[in-house]
Design a protein that fits this description.
Elements lengths: L1 E4 L6 H4 L1 E4 L9 E11 L1 H8 L15 E9 L11 E4 L14 E5 L3 E3 L6 H4 L3 H12 L8 E5 L4 H12 L3 E6 L2 H9 L4 E4 L5 H6 L4 E6 L2 H11 E9 L11 H6 L3 E4 L7 H16 L8 E5 L3 H9 L5 E5 L2
Parallel strand pairs: 8-9, 8-11, 9-10, 11-12, 12-13, 14-15
Antiparallel strand pairs: 1-2, 3-4, 3-6, 3-15, 4-5, 5-7
The protein binds NADP nicotinamide-adenine-dinucleotide phosphate.
NADP nicotinamide-adenine-dinucleotide phosphate binds next to helix 2, helix 4, helix 5 and helix 8.
Length: 322
């Protein structure tokens, strides 16, 4: 099969190439998926560049997320799964078989049926962003009736954080940096969209009411804003590291009686992962999750695809393995 591979860390143009390799067979408990679309996330270029290295055993096919059709199952997996349309999550975590290839193999529970009518584009966009968004939203309890602030609501995680929060019955405010992203966040269903670069950002958020939980993409940049709008005893849940770690204003955090939580998908236990998958499936079935604008690359252009994500492309970068 054709696959994107790398066997050492470095810039995409130097280490990432397309190769012909043997098509994998599913091990016991696994399924094989014929990939229609592979979804690219920041973690994929960070793993490949070595900035957040993950072990490489021989070679690595990148990308966790994808959509496709199961065409073979390993021992112990119900053969009726063959032919099922699925989306994948964490395909390349601790495994070499990422989705930037014509086929991947992965544990059966990491290939989730796509409800009827859901596009492969949306399916390939879900894994890392939607599960991260779900974990950030729900790790500290239900959000129905609560007020959620999603920082960076036009990002991939931010987008699904807005949609999953609305689906769970929350009121949602979000921040963006300009009009194009404001439009995307409003389309995702945010009740209030605020430009965090404007001087009245805190006032506009405060007028929406005290925030019960923040889903945070940039703790250092936004902590003062978060503390200005958060209700006492509430949580700020951070899922991204900035170029430099912030200095923590301990007294201000104490004054707010705030809880700081951090989420890294690679370490989330299996129960909350399964709960996220269940809730995402329910939201998909009810039409509550939508696509971001897609930038689609062929497998031969996988270097450009990863570089587009690294460059901060607005929307979702997808690769067609062919
Ligand atoms: N912990 C985990 O398990 C996990 C999972 C998924 C992603 N991540 C990390 O989370 C980050 C975002 O991932 P993604 O896929 O959502 O990326 P993305 O689609 O590029 O979105 C990032 C968004 O954050 C916004 N942003 C940047 N600085 C901001 C600020 N100070 N305030 C508000 N918004 C800000 C960006 O817009 P503007 O710059 O225009 O504001 C952009 O819309 C990446 O660093 C990724 O590695 C971590």
């Amino acid at each position: 099969m054709r696959a994107a591979v790398y066997d050492r860390y470095g810039p995409a143009g130097e280490v990432l190439r397309v190769a012909d390799i043997d098509r994998p067979e599913p091990e016991p408990g696994e399924v094989r998926v014929r990939i229609e679309l592979s979804g690219v996330n920041p973690t994929d270029w960070k793993s490949r560049s070595g900035s957040t290295p993950r072990p490489i055993e021989g070679f690595q096919i990148p990308h966790h997320d994808g959509a496709g059709v199961i065409d073979a199952v390993g021992e112990g997996v119900d053969a009726s799964r063959i032919g099922q349309r699925v989306w994948t999550w964490m395909a390349a975590a601790g495994r070499r078989w990422g989705t930037a290839a014509q086929w991947t193999v992965l544990p059966s529970r990491q290939a989730v049926p796509l409800p009827d009518g859901i596009s492969a584009r949306l399916g390939a966009s879900l894994g890392v962003p939607a599960i991260t968004a779900h974990r950030c939203l729900h790790a500290d309890g239900p959000v129905a009736g609560k007020t959620i602030l999603v920082a960076g609501g036009a990002g991939a995680v931010g987008h699904f954080a807005i949609e999953l929060a609305k689906f769970a019955g929350a009121r949602v405010a979000t921040t963006v940096s300009g009009p194009e992203k404001a439009e995307l966040a409003a389309r995702a269903g945010a009740d209030l969209v605020v430009n965090y670069r404007e001087p009245d950002a805190a006032d506009r958020l405060r007028s929406f009411g005290p925030v019960d939980r923040v889903v945070e993409v940039a703790l250092g940049a936004n902590l003062a804003l978060d503390l200005a709008v958060i209700a006492p005893g509430s949580q700020i849940v951070t899922y991204a590291a900035e170029a430099e770690d912030p200095a923590l204003p301990v007294r201000s955090c104490m004054n707010a009686n705030v809880v700081l939580r951090f989420v890294l998908l690679y370490g989330v236990p299996s129960d909350p992962m399964d709960l996220a998958v269940k809730d995402i499936t329910a939201a998909l079935s009810r039409g509550a999750l939508t696509e971001l604008p897609a930038h689609t690359f062929s497998l031969d252009d996988v270097v450009a695809a990863q570089d587009a994500v690294q460059g901060g492309a607005v929307g979702k970068v997808l690769v067609v393995p062919g």
